[in-house]
Amino acid sequence: MRTLEVVELIRKGNLSIEESTHKVIEEVKKLTSEYNYFNTIAADTAIKRAKELDAQIKKGKKSGKLLGIPISVKDSICVKGMESTGGSRILEGYIPPFNATAVQRCLDEGAIVIGKTSQDEFGFGGFSVNVGVGYKVPKNPFDKTRTCGGSSGGCAGYTQKTAYNQLSIGESTGGSIVEPASFCGIVGLCPTYGRVSRYGLMDFSNAMDKIGPMTRTLEDAALLLEVIAGFDSNESTTINAPVDSYTKVLKKSLKGMKFAVIKEAFAEGLDPAVEKHVWNGIKKLESAGATYEEISLKIPIKYGISTYYLLGTSEASTNLAKYCGMRYGKQDKLEGSFNEYFTKVRSSYLGEEAKRRIMLGTFARMAGYRDAYYLKALKVRTLMINEYKKAFKKYDVLATPTVSILPPKFSEIEKLTPLQCYMIDVLTVGPNIAGLPHLNMPVGMEKGLPVGMLLTADHLQEGKLVQLGSWLE
Amino acid sequence: MKFTTDIVIGLEIHVQLDTKTKLFCGCATKGSEEPNTRTCPACLGFPGSKPVLNKRAVDYALRLCLALGCEISPKLIFSRKSYFYPDLAKNYQISQYEIPLGLSGELRLSDWKMVGITRVHMEEDPASLIHTKSTGASAYVLVDYNRSGIPLCEVVTEPDMASPDQARDFMKRLMTVLSYLDIFDEQTCVIKADANISIKESGYVRSEIKNITGFKEIERALFYEVERQKIAVRSGEKLMQDTRGWDAEKGMTFHMRAKETEADYGYILDPDLVVTEIPSEWLKQVKASMPELAEDKIRKYVETHKIAQLDAEVIAQERKLAELFEKVAKEVDPVLAAKWMRRELVRVMSFNKITFHDLLVDEKHLIELLSMVEKKEITEQVAQKIMEELVVKPFSPRQYVEKHGLKRVAETGALLKVCEEVIKENKNVVEEYLAGKEKSFQFLVGQVMRKTKGAASPQEVNELLRKLLKSKS
Predict the structure, then answer these.
(1) Whole-model pTM?
(2) Nearest in space to A329 (alpha carbons), one of A103, A155, A86
(3) Which of residues B362, B386, B403 is at a domain's end?
(4) Interface test with B, best of A84, A235, A322, A375 (most B CBs within 10 A)
(5) For residue B405, what pLDDT band results from cuts at 50, 70 and 90?
């Protein structure tokens, strides 16, 4: 059943939210014990809210686009009164005193938050294996020996696995929505930077972080984006532009739509099975009425990873400085000087990858290196945006595979160097750095594992992604 | 830079701006003194919180830049200054780095020396640290975040001052500018300075004295430091660059740390605060709202009111005095008003330890008093006495003069009568005078003054008495 239909049943009072929420929570518990999709399961809060909503509906008082619909939220996005740690031990016990704007907007439309999903600590990874100290790694819904992708791994795995109409709110800095979506065979829609407020999101790289929908269907993603997008006076980087009706452009004719296939993305290292399925997707779009050309777009793939890691770690190393065991989260016995104390707390409760990125970022912005690394990366970002903008003068959308490979086994990931791990994002960092909206659509299964295709549009052109993507479902 | 003066001083001054709310959140800057009550997730650095710029604070900072004749940056850019300290909620301070709001201004001292302003930038105040015992002796410090996020303007001067007195004068004049601009509340806002100082004898080896509060302390601290450096050089010590503290109680500076290298703050742009153009419309509005400053007033007083330069300077440097003067000068001869207000009023106030802030003198009363002086209805002696009482409590000088019969006693009439009376009553003394004893004459004058309660001009009494006595000899 479509989510819209479920909402309609609930609104009419034909479906008890309390009953369905009980079922959802049972499933979440079961899946989490098996697949580690949630860091926090908010059973009591969710049931209580379900009862309240049922009562309000009975009185004819409640409506909303997401009435009674369960939502799961990436752990790094704050939910008032619900432990939110960003997947890090250092924030153990932190209960945010406010809702992230995206969460609040869902609640305003009648949604129920069921819990916080597992992820790489603070978003630092592409396989969800860089979890916080003592946290569990989420497993791929199609093969438990493989990764869900990351960093929004819990969102992706759970969304694939659940039997219920559920929407997940993920977050991407360099590919953390579309990459796990691709590995788990779901829809991931990462909006334009500034389209969805970051208020309430624990910062990784503030200039690149984006909150976006991770759902089973494109209609669900469009619906969720309509709810969470829009200007927010609490967040200075949100865009003050009207929010389009994304659900209205589903299956709209592709006549006149022109997209480009980026040649550099089909280079060495691309799994032939991935290549095959992505080309099938391209042909599908062509037969639905769109035209395409193959073009060259050099900067994003050539310089994307280095630019992304310089900017991302520079910002991350300042963002993580506040976690020092003082005002919230994990605290230790007060001993020694301030420096000794916070060093001990950070050494004990931050994971290896977080420490690596703090060191990389601190180095990149040090006097003497700042010009060569941080400031140069800012310039490359501008060049990259310009190259994309030029392409969008001719084409509505750009197409590539989302990831070059099928979801790898954990045993394979263990053997990778940090740099090889970073390369997993090679196709997704470009649009993320440039703040461009991008969408993962599942385009086929290979050896029982999903393959995804990445569509990227110009700023604020999420509608084009939905329009095009809907012909791939 | 090549220095030539015996002493070289440069200042970095932090001014708290008198806004209602903090720089990046809606918390009040004043109110409850109860620790940590004027706080929110933003100024406590909670995960997920985001800064939102207070436009009023930028308005105030722009006023200061304009008043100091700075070039205004076309863009508003904030950076993160990273260092770990318990008073910093985020372990970085939002400040301005590469491109400050204002560059290359100047401020004139009383001795007409121009002091260059290197830059004026905005930043957030850290929290305050409360030491339960003296620094170092306490096992812990308490942190009060009420101050965290209060807007500051930092004014950096060129090393243009050649004496502690000039540094004090600079601070005083800066305070005057702040007072005219209405951006600083002397009663509640804090102004602090770091001073760089070196002397010729050491080859200009610089010490930086941190955190000196108030303009009188600046002079004391610098005076001490000059002497310390001189004595050190004379005794053969080789001075090293260092950072020093100022102990106001002991009246001494003390060594804090050697300054071998510049601290590395790893500045990056603050990605939560978008780089914005300062619209010319905005700048125009701020320019239009600029009040008349001391320099404008001095020019006006000298050119249109024909007042002595020195009187004009003294009056214009005190905003309250200047405002009072301008009201009085509409009714009374400005030259007379200037003379009386600059000398008598200021003298009487300092005798009574009254500051301009708690001065209660009503301009109506001052006008009454000075117009009586102007019309020679009372003597200067009487006027001085009335002034002495007027600064303590308000009353009508005209009624007071009438009630106490203090009207000037003129030659023809009452004064002549009093003189004749005195001569009649003091025959012996008159004879002594006639016999050549000059002292006796002073006694007679004193008697007349006593009888007239000072309402006679001593000069007139002198002349009149001599005339009368001459006729007797």
Answers:
(1) 0.90
(2) A86
(3) B403
(4) A322
(5) confident
